[in-house]
## 1
Amino acid sequence: THTDYTPLALLFNEHATLVVPANSPFKNVRDIMDKLKYDPQALSVAVGFSPGGINHLGAARLLKQGGVDVRKLKVVMFQGQGAVLTALLGGHVDIAPMQVATALSNAQQGKLRILGIAAERRGEGALADIPTWREQGFDLVWSNVRFMLGPRGMTQAQLAYWDGVLERMTGSDEWKNEGRKNYLQLEYLNSKQMPQRIAVIYQQLKGASIDVGLIKE
């Protein structure tokens, strides 16, 4: 677990969305929940990479709030977001959790409909029209948290070195511009701030993994 490493830094978050094809009959997430509540196998949920990944667990957390038995969902695994997108646009699957940058670019092309985003508040610019789950009555903030770890037992001098390097990097204009371009929520935490945050992240992921039946309580 995270306790086998030295937490060095939190860098940024990628908030998750839930999308359907633009021609889908589902206009909002409540329509989906109503259908899945009575038959969890009625719709297929496309997920990139693996069971227990951040997209899989985030979608499950959301649907559980609508009374869906998330252990019985028809989850279809793909090797990446590109394959998920292809299957979704081809009509082979019904819904998919997706990182906001990919979802937004395809929604702007008229290919997808974004039902909501798991952020604390609406974004700016192109993100301003995407409602949060909280706005729609679901208490869920969920993101793919990007952080750095080092080996266990790093010295104070080593931690100070990496704190300095990463603070300079995350404060640079190049870093900030990259974040804006890819719709990332930039949030830098150093090695002193990270242990508490990563413990919270671990508990969230563990709880969601129990929800879907991947691990036991």
## 2
Amino acid sequence: MLKVYGYPNTRSVRITWLLEELALPYTYERVDMQHGQHRSEAFLSKNPAGRIPLLETEHGLISESGAIINYLASLKPDAELIPSLSSYRRAIYDQWLFFTLTELEQPLWSIAKHTFALPKEQRCEAVIASAQWEFQRALKVLAQGLGDKPYMLGDRFTALDVPLAHTLFWAMAAKQPIEQANINDYIGRMAVRPALSAAREREQQS
């Protein structure tokens, strides 16, 4: 059985959310980041980066949320949450997945690092303003790419929508302005998905 190492209100909800969408059985192990469990020798032996999410499979461990998402979506091809490798649609899927992880998410992570995540002596307040500007620029690109579609690839929900929506939820929690109406409508559609509620409940109860 698949096993997720995670912690509530982190990127690990991307994994539990997708698992709930796919109706795949899994177990969940909370890694207590508040008390440094992610830096323990036991956890570092599984993921030397000391980060979550981490997925344990019968074949081995997988880190990085984008890689885990693609792996899980590929386990259940009949669900059609990830396009086939040889298709143009898959190239567009990958385009927006990489954009989400490298252009949309990274400014938010920079803000978090220089606000609370890094040791105080390593923080630089000037980085925060620059990252906020970068995020707003990425939002404009996203709004144009989303257009009037209900989901990022069109009329059907795909695994791509999981990290994208989660990143936008993160932005809202960080009080970053989102002025684009189509993005706000998209956030509203994603926020009420039953699988997301189930994933959050699972993480909180574990």
## 3
Amino acid sequence: MKSLPLDRIRVLDLSRVLAGPLCTMMLADLGAHVIKIERPETGDDTRGWGPPFAPDGQSAYFRSINRNKLSLALDLRDRGEVELTKQLIADADVVIDNFVPGQMARYGIDSGAEMALNTSLVWCSISGFGADSTRPGYDFVVQAEAGWMSITGEIDGAPMKTGVALVDVITGKDAAIAILAALVGRERKTAADRHVHLSLVHSATAALVNVAQNVMVSGTEARRWANAHANLVPYQLFQALDRPMVLAVGSDGQWISAMRALGLDALAEDQTLITNAGRLMHRARVVTAIAERIASEPAEACCRRLDAVGVPCGLVRSVSEALGQVGSSPVTGVAPIANGRVRYPSPRLNEHHKLIREHGWSSFDHLPIPSQGTRD
């Protein structure tokens, strides 16, 4: 079997909930050996975030971000358990934590001291609002404070969060990228360079991308556009005869092609609409004409004609419909990125305590032949 890119990179996961565990699952999908440290009895908070729960009792939430890991329950208030944690840190390549700043030190684990002993160790700390803030970081709160909710929702409606905990997801992916960058040439880097700090609020603010730049360049506050786009027309939701669909015109060439495909030749030939700037000025007229046309036939028929001329469009699918288009399993979740692999299902709480206590990081050499498993 082809080796994975991060084969035998040792990652100690001291994180919980979503951002940190997503990051370590991504590293595990790429071949890293990940040991997840959990609290005794209750484990990661998300073990109890349900229903739904799988037949074996695991919450769907926990299962979505914890495959390919071993689980060890340790009480970090116990000195002996802390010493075992330090032993694992001493031979790790990466440690990731999302404790409230200062909490690890109170348990007797000092990242600086550990990195001085293990001079190739990469440490990633994730906080809610930065290393100097003890505010707990929850995705919903950060979506509010990072400006996301002020630009999401219906134009005249209440501020709205996204349907996925996207701040946590983006931060987890940012963390994976930062860790991989820190691993490159780590032997030549100082401890400061190898200690990566991320915060939910920074990742969320950076993810505003063009919206943030619009505000900085124009000096005008961003506002909600519902399912339309601030800078492009037409680029929004339309209701077809049978279901909603989206049309996303990203260039003037696509505009001409789209209008001809939809039978709106008059719009294609209107010189006031030939550029996106013109269409922005006449947004209401353009959107009304397209909406009336799309409402007259099924969404799939519209999409077929738009697809045929290379115009981006799509049906608004349910989650079940969307999952049918990609590899997914109720046991192991959505398939990993292309150069990753599912090897083990998410672990039961403390499932590998005996193995890890006896063999430490060599535990992975004593596991059964990797498989996707069906432990329901």
